[in-house]
């Protein structure tokens, strides 16, 4: 079928299937055959502006993924250093020192979304933590249809001020929509008031169903929470912790958290009091997940990131250039 703006297309040719086919053909001619936009337009029997829209569609839907390899750039050297030192697959996002925290997060989120997409397969169970970083990532996911896949919430989101359902569910919904996967929410608070309450709830069948999905995860995607981050982690700014909780975290020498489970600089976490009340995944069990993708933006999270790496919680790391430099040079 040759695109011609509908002049001789069969009925229904403006349907998504035809548009995707046109986008794929345009992308193949432009990127693989080095034809100009005008040449592609002539061959498809359409206009140059339509070809431009088709190429944009090809990039936005993941039909085309653009990678720039610059041998003089610092990012590849940083990636190799991080890989050797910490044993993780690293993706360093070039960001100038003059860029503010919000813009840096946006750039890291775009790169993370493009990195995650090719790693997602059918029959996957993907655990997703809520938070400022994953919220940003969720806005840039490219569409990739999978079959029999599930997105499962890693930790509860409720607190004394809100159920947290709207905030967390929007993040999960975007992941589910991007990958054609069903979404499994975890409707419990982020922290119980008492550890005994958590133990009792963990015996409920409705809760155990979500826990079972988490135990069978093939991929987990999360950020690193930190009290001193340039863009405050949602768990510290959203009313989840009171003054007593924060003081206890200081006494326990906590440097960060993943999905509201806390750890120290050396990666230890089993005896941190607040973890007994948290609804996040057991960090020892999380290490059994085959692919664990950690997304970090902002040098102020470096202590938390080091703790997460010391605990062996990530297999893949996506971070900004400034954070990467601090990670390897300090």
Number of domains: 2
The CATH architecture of the largest domain can be named as 3-Layer(aba) Sandwich
| Spans where pLDDT lies below 50 across 5 or more residues | 1-13
According to CATH, what is the class of the largest domain? Alpha Beta
Helix content range of the residues, please? 40-55%
Q: Predict the CATH topology of the largest domain.
A: Rossmann fold
Strand content: 5-15%
How does the overall form come out from the CA principal axes? globular
Strand order of the largest sheet: 1-9-8-5-2-3-4
Q: What do these coordinates show?
A:
43% of the residues lie in helices and 12% in strands. It is α/β, with parallel strands linked by helices. The chain has two domains: 66 residues, Arc Repressor Mutant, subunit A, CATH 1.10.10.60; 256 residues, Rossmann fold (3-Layer(aba) Sandwich). Strand 8, helix 13 and strand 9 form a beta-alpha-beta unit. Helix 1 packs across helix 2 and helix 1 crosses helix 3. The protein starts with 15 loop residues before the first helix and ends with a helix. The N terminus is likely disordered.
Task: Write a brief structural summary.
With 330 residues, this protein is an alpha/beta fold. The chain has helices at 16-32, 37-44, 48-60, 74-86, 101-116, 132-138, 165-179, 195-201, 205-215, 234-237, 243-251, 283-286, 302-310, 321-329, and strands spanning 89-93, 125-128, 150-153, 182-184, 219-223, 254-258, 261-264, 291-296, 316-320.
């Amino acid at each position: 079928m040759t695109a011609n703006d509908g002049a001789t297309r069969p009925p229904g040719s403006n349907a998504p299937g035809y548009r995707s086919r046109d986008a794929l053909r345009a992308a193949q001619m432009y990127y693989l055959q080095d034809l100009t936009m005008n040449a592609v337009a002539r061959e498809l029997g359409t206009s140059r502006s339509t070809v431009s829209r088709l190429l944009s569609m090809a990039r936005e839907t993941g039909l085309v993924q653009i990678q720039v390899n610059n041998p003089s750039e610092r990012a590849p050297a940083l990636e190799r250093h991080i890989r050797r030192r910490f044993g993780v697959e690293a993706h360093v996002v070039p960001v100038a020192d003059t860029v503010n925290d919000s813009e840096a997060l946006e750039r890291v989120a775009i790169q993370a979304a493009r990195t995650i997409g090719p790693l997602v397969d059918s029959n996957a169970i993907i655990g997703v933590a809520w938070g400022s970083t994953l919220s940003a990532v969720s806005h840039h996911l490219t569409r990739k249809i999978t079959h029999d896949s599930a997105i499962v919430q890693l930790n509860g989101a409720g607190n004394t001020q809100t159920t947290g359902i709207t905030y967390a569910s929007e993040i999960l919904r975007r992941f589910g929509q991007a990958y054609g996967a069903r979404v499994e929410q975890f409707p419990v608070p982020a922290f119980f008031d008492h550890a005994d309450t958590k133990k009792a709830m963990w015996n409920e069948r409705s809760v155990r169903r979500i826990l079972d999905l988490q135990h069978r995860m093939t991929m987990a995607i999360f950020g690193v929470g930190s009290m001193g981050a340039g863009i405050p982690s949602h768990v510290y700014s959203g009313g989840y912790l009171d003054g007593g909780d924060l003081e206890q975290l200081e006494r326990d020498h906590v440097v960060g958290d993943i999905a509201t489970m806390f750890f120290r600089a050396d990666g230890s976490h089993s005896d941190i009091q607040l973890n007994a009340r948290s609804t996040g995944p057991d960090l020892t069990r999380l290490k059994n997940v085959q692919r664990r993708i950690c997304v970090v933006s902002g040098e102020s999270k470096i202590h938390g990131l080091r703790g997460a790496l010391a605990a062996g919680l990530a297999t893949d790391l996506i971070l900004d250039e400034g954070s990467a430099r601090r990670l390897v040079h300090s």
